[in-house]
Amino acid sequence: MTEPSAASMTHLAALGPFCAFETHTAASELIAPWRTLSEVAQEGSDVLRERVASVRASLAANSGRPPESVAPRVAASVAHLGLVARVISPVLGLAALHGLPSRPLTLGDLRWGSALGGAFRLSLPREAVTPAAGGDIRSVDAIAADMLDGPVRALVDAFAPFSVSPRILWGNVASAVNGAATGITAAAPSLQRPARAAALAFLRQPQLRDTHTLDTHNGRFTRRSCCLIYRAAPDAAGAVCGDCVLTRGWGGRGRDGRERGGR
């Protein structure tokens, strides 16, 4: 593991847009269009409500319908999955390659350029992506625990007013972790081992331990909940994601659309 120099940051960016990030000094002035990600977790945040409303409108527009046709909690789950995927991906890449961040992160540390339709701009504090004094490398387990107890938990808690089950929200987190490792491996097959090891360090944390199954023979990841995006389609008849519980019939929805068990 080495310090993330400019060259290695370019390497991370080459792993896909969700792994790319910029840096800022922790004490630097916040200049538009940059915003602090902690604003989405503030109680009664208009920023979060506006983002969920924008996702709702986008999902409805995909099938030529008005926003009211998509349930708010469906839009909230999809919005949450997008946020956690963007936050987790670069940190998983850093953890796998460099044993970084060198200190725990908070949502207040993270700066974003809010946008829909892909990976929004994200900036991490330069001090956190620089090795600690003495050159000590943090374990990926410690980084995973800090991320899940810190910014990720804050994002999960922020979505409580939208009536999305915590089971679904933590399932979104597990899906984002697996998706990040899959994306890194697809972009750079030589990184499969560290990327998968980092993903496992996240997935075995208490918050994610019961959110998924992982086939030890073929590495297939299946979550134990559904992100609900299929419900955004007319008559809730949309396609399900490749890692969805519904593809396996895990006590869940049949292909006729009827559900069994809460998610």
Please, what is the average pLDDT?
Answer: 88
Report the span from N to C terminus. Answer: 40 Å
The rough form would be described as globular
Biggest sheet, in brief? 4 strands, mixed
Q: In total, how many domains does the architecture comprise? A: 1
- Helical content band: 25-40%
Count of DSSP-assigned helices: 7
Regions with little confidence, pLDDT below 50 for 5+ residues: 249-263
Neighbour order of strands in the largest sheet? 1-4-3-2
Please identify the structural class as seen in this structure: alpha+beta
Beta strands, count:
6
Percent strand equals 5-15%
Radius of gyration (CA) equals 18 Å
- Elements, N to C (H/E): HEEHHEEHHHHEE
Task: Please outline what is shown here.
The protein is an alpha+beta fold and 263 residues long. It has one domain.
Keywords:
two-stranded antiparallel ribbon, four-stranded mixed sheet, single chain, 7 helices, disordered C terminus, 6 strands, 263 residues, alpha+beta
Descriptive notes:
The chain is of the alpha+beta class and 263 residues long. A 4-stranded mixed sheet has the order 1-4-3-2, with no helix packed on it. A two-stranded antiparallel ribbon has the order 5-6. It is globular.
List the helices and strands and how they pair.
Blueprint lengths: L5 H8 L8 E3 L10 E2 L9 H16 L10 H27 L12 E3 L7 E5 L14 H10 L1 H8 L7 H22 L4 H12 L8 E3 L6 E3 L40
Parallel strand pairs: 1-4
Antiparallel strand pairs: 2-3, 3-4, 5-6
Helix pairs in contact: 2-3, 3-4, 3-5, 3-6, 3-7, 4-5, 6-7
